[in-house]
Design the sequence.
């Protein structure tokens, strides 16, 4: 999520906040399988046309906080534009939905996203690959499913400051063909959260694989839930940066596990690790996110 109103200074890309639909190289198939909705398919086709001109527009479907593009998706767009294999995406301001934006590759393997008057929204910088050695083993599919059920049993909850539910592309209560449903709760007896989910064909490329920018989006919200359920992250926090290394394709229509865990906390800054695995525990993607708590409200 991203929310420029937080005024963190280091970035405002919140997991639930920054999504665009100007896909990567894998986004060129506008049909995306029999389950694709017409509106989503048309958005992808339009995004591809824009991308060829260095532009992109974030459809309203790809938002986290209201009217703010989903952070993980925006990160995926920048990663797809950058030439480096692993990048760190830093969010500088909230990315709006429904507004033409400019996406440009930079010398040295990076990329940047700018808005009106060339206002900087996000940057991608080459980074070392995320260490697989530091990633804990995935919980079993059964334990991940139990965590998902626990999330649902808790009622409608969200990452907004007041704890209310947000219609988030990443973790909102949307149908499977309109959202990623990253409904993470704590895995009992562990310091991680997890969810079991099945990627919908609406988000697939021509080969039935989850589009790259959507896979980046999957890595966002689980880190927030790890911070809330296991760490000390406060509701209303925003994503300051997201780094990811993609290891193998995620096949739509098959069961997968997403899990995340806190790694460090310093003041308002919280770092979390995250991974996506197959039902057998094979790693598909690993990442690291930096989240920042909202500033304390002034008293008196």
Sequence:
């Amino acid at each position: 999520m991203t929310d420029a109103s937080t005024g963190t200074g280091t970035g405002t890309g919140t997991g639930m906040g920054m999504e665009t639909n100007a896909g990567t190289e894998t986004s060129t198939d506008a049909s995306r399988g029999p389950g694709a909705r017409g509106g989503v398919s048309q958005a992808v086709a339009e995004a591809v046309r824009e991308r060829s001109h260095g532009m992109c527009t974030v459809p309203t479907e790809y938002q986290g906080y209201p009217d703010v593009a989903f952070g993980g998706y925006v990160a995926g767009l920048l990663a797809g534009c950058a030439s480096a294999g692993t990048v760190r995406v830093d969010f500088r301001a909230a990315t709006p939905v429904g507004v033409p934006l400019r996406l440009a590759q930079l010398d040295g393997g990076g990329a940047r996203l700018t808005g009106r008057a060339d206002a900087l929204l996000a940057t991608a910088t080459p980074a070392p690959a995320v260490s697989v050695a530091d990633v804990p083993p995935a919980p079993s599919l059964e334990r991940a499913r139990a965590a998902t059920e626990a999330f649902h049993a808790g009622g409608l909850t969200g990452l907004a400051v007041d704890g209310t539910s947000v219609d988030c592309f990443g973790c909102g209560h949307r149908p499977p063909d309109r959202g990623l449903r990253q409904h993470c709760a704590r895995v009992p007896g562990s310091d991680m959260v997890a969810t079991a989910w099945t990627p919908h064909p609406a988000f697939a490329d021509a080969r039935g694989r989850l589009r790259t920018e959507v896979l980046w989006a999957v890595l966002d919200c689980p880190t927030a839930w790890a911070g809330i359920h296991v760490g000390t992250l406060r509701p209303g926090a925003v994503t300051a940066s997201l780094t990811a290394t993609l290891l193998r394709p995620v096949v739509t229509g098959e069961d997968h596990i997403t899990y995340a865990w806190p790694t460090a906390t310093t003041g308002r800054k919280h770092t979390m690790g995250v991974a996506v695995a197959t039902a057998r525990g094979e790693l598909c993607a690993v990442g690291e996110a930096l989240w920042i708590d909202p500033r304390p409200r002034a008293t008196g």
About this structure: The longest strand covers residues 256-266. The helical segments are 38-51, 71-81, 141-153, 212-218, 221-229. DSSP finds five helices and eleven strands in the chain.
